[in-house]
Amino acid sequence: MPSLSCRIFCFVLLTSWFSLRAQGPSPEPSAPVHKISAIDAAHVHEIFHDVYNDVRKDYYDPTYHGVNLEQRYHEFDSHVDSAASNGDAFRFIAGFLNGLHDSHLFFEPPPRGTSYQVDYRMAMIGDRCFITQLRPGTDAATKLHVGDQVLALNGYGVSRAALWSLEYMFHALAPAPREQFTLVSAEGEKRTVVITHAMKMNKRVYDLTTGEDFWDMVRQDQDDADLIRERYVEHGDVLVWKMAEFNADINTVESMYGKARKNQTLIIDLRGNPGGSTDSLQMIAGYLFDHDVKIADRVGRKTMKPQMAKAFHSPFKGKLIVLIDSGSASSSELLARVVQLEHRGTVLGDTSAGAVMEAHQFGDQIGADNVIAYGMSVTDANLVMSDGKSLENHGVEPDEKILPTAADLAAGRDPVMIRAFELAGSTLPPAMSGRLFPFLWSRL
User: Which uninterrupted H or E stretch holds 347?
Assistant: First the structure.
């Protein structure tokens, strides 16, 4: 987790934004009704210039995939003064970066005075987008239904190529209190609904002298850690390890494999896992093989050592099954693909995100007394697997593609988990399959 000082003076890393794919064109900013102030525009110009310099100096490909970076920067920067709002202006920064079609290269905008709580989750299943989770007791829960297919969000069509950009735009760059959905229900009925998000006033100044703000941050860190904790279920001679992110330390990894070795089959559920620490990836992979394994070659501006998984003294030798979906990104994809290339186990589910680069994330700021903090993710290296191919923009194709239907989602059935237990030589009741790991919502 980020340190408190990082939380105060830099920014909070939003993992899903750093790990999922940034493909498809960024929707163009709408025609402005009014323009941002000259002071706000000057701030955005300064941030934009810093972003441009970060990419120019640190991006892994010095040719920028053939993009004339300076020309593109000046082209997008020239529109900032005519933006309708700060959010609209930030979309020009995002559009500039999106021209490199890189999943790990993007801008984290400054925190806002207000934020809107997103009380639903949606995900691509095959080529269709579905509502997958709803927070009880919210406006979203009264108007949306798990299993609804999402045809359009705020007037924009939803596809695999566009979903990340849409969520990034409407939830990060220019969030609004209401969203419009065009939906098809599990029964095939088409409808349009507008949902309202709950608004939260955020503090602009933190006072660490009284202790209240300090302990609020401590509690927030604890809540965040709880959402990504390692979870597992043992059923018969099968252990299912639900891995929310790659953030486990060596003690946690050893503990999980100690439990796995008592069972015949290990199912590693990486669905919705956006990636995380490469150290964690290397440790987790190291317990799956009895020999050292190269995960990927790192290709960048300078010569770099490959990512390696060093074999541990007592690896798990049982049957291995890995579950992935469209939300499995970065380290999740690397682990799944290594399992395939080494013929170590079976991969089930849906095609993964295709967001597999190596990047460093950092906070930056402009100003002295009144600080405006923002963040960046800049790609350090492309990762090339042992078959000579990169997973970026392609993803991992599972050995068996299994796509839950709208009816499965609505009923809480998990056909991917059911099939995993079949391959393990066991059975899992359909009614139980979708309840092994209840979805965890952040605390309000």
Answer: strand 346-349
Other beta carbons within 10 angstroms of residue 125's beta carbon come to: 20
Q: CA nearest 375: which of 161, 128, 111?
A: 111
Is the pTM higher than 0.85? The answer reads: yes
| Single-letter amino acid code for the residue at 419 | R
Determine the Cα–Cα distance for residues 336 and 268; give it in Å rounded to an integer: 10
Strands 400-401 and 346-349: parallel
HSE (side-chain half, CA atoms, 13 Å) at 11: 23
Tell me, what's the pLDDT at 115? 80
Q: Degrees (nearest 5) of the Cα angle 425, 290, 308?
A: 115
Q: Distance between CA 221 and CA 35 in Å, rounded?
A: 37
Let me know: does 92 contact 80? Beta carbons within 8 Å. yes
**Plot region of 348 (φ>0 → left; ψ -120 to 50 → alpha; else → beta):** beta
Q: Which residue has the tokens 């992110």?
A: 245
User: What amino acid is encoded at 299 in this protein?
Assistant: V
**CB distance 89 to 81 below 8 Å:** no
Give the pLDDT band (50/70/90) at residue 22: very low
